[in-house]
Amino acid sequence: MNIAQYVKSLNVVEEHYPDVYSYAVDNSVPIIDSDALAALKHLIRIKGAKTYMEIGTAIGYSGLHLLSVYDDSHLITMEKDRGAYETAVENFSRYDVASRVDAHLGDAKTMDLNIEEESVDLLFIDASKGNNQLFFDKFSPFVKEDGLIVVDNILLRGLVTEDDIVGRNKRKLKEKVDAFNQHMSQSDYPTSFLPIGDGLLVISKSQV
Q1: I need a surface site. Which of 2, 16, 43, 64 has the fewest CB within 10 A?
Q2: Which residues lie closer than 8 Å to 38 by C-beta, 6 or more apart?
């Protein structure tokens, strides 16, 4: 067991939604790693965040976990795949949180939301990784001045550190994600790049 595996084992907690998790595994639906999820929920508790915006609903796994931290929390979430969206809506209903969710079917890149700026405590970006910069630029204005922006999969399972990438699409994806990471590291926003899960980027909305 290496250090990363040791720390991951310490972060393992009881799964609240085993059926949703099993569905994701059985159907190869990408979901947030358990240790990254634990860190995300811890950040929510520390911040006292109760209003969330999520880019990339998938089947609702991360959304359910976000809503599990506080009983009076609320989630705005977007998903462009109809099948995943419909499964997520079913999951939200089955776990009796549908009244706390505004689920939108459509492409977040072109979606216009009728909500006020600086109205959410947390923005969670977990959609097409090559569009991280676009999602950040478009949706960060909706985050409160003292809120958080969290981006998942910033390491691309190690792809961001590889130099000899044969596939053109993989190479372009690596370049886009790395460019976003580098941009945020040099920005005026306080940032933390956490090597847990597939990498979490935590950004404080307040500029230094």
Answers
A1: 2
A2: 11, 13
Give the integer Cα–Cα distance in Å for 157 and 187.
Answer: 24
CB environment 29-64: b (16+ within 10 A), e (fewer): bebbbbbbbbbbbebbeeeebbbbbbbbbbbbbbbb
Give 108-142 pLDDT, tens digit per residue.
Answer: 999 998 898 889 999 999 999 999 999 999 999 99
Q: Show the domains of the chain with their CATH numbers.
A: 3-204 (3.40.50.150)
Task: List Cα–Cα distances, 107 to 71, 96, 197, in angstroms.
Answer: 28, 26, 26
How much is the pTM?
0.94
Task: Pick the closest to residue 17 from 75, 61, 63 (CA basis).
Answer: 61
Cβ-Cβ contacts under 8 Å for 97 (sequence gap 6 or more): 64, 67, 75
- The average confidence (pLDDT) of the chain is 94
